[in-house]
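Pilot study result, target chain (143 residues):
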Amino acid sequence: MDSQAQLSDTIASQCERRLSDCGIRPTGQRVRIAVLLLSAPQHLSAEQILDSLRAAGARVSKATVYNTLNLFAERGLIRQLSVDGSRAWFDSNVDAHYHFHDLTSGALIDVPVPDVEFSRLPPPPPGTEVAGIDVVIRLRKKA
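Predicted structure:
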């Protein structure tokens, strides 16, 4: 077995363990999706994941991809983002952070929490508490 195949097997084994740790049964299709999405910090749409899997020869349905991504998000393995209302993005970085959104390319870029400051938040309605803050900073080329 060459070193590339060994690395691929190692990544797949790590993904299987992560799925199991989140209470997700690691089926072949789920592991392939996990390997694709969790191999690096990134933001991918379901369509990008489906296209990549099919380009690699995997036979997988759109419904399977969506169902798997929704399961991963529900179990805290990834974060689902709604940035512009046109599609959902799936973020492999589940640590607290914000995003730049490049309006031209559509790319999302992580912004560390300490790089953004809030001087004041409005008080939440009675009986509620702030569970999190999502910030998307939209970018465009200077005119």
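One observation from the pilot: Residues 3-21 form the longest helix (19 residues). A full batch analysis is planned for the follow-on phase.
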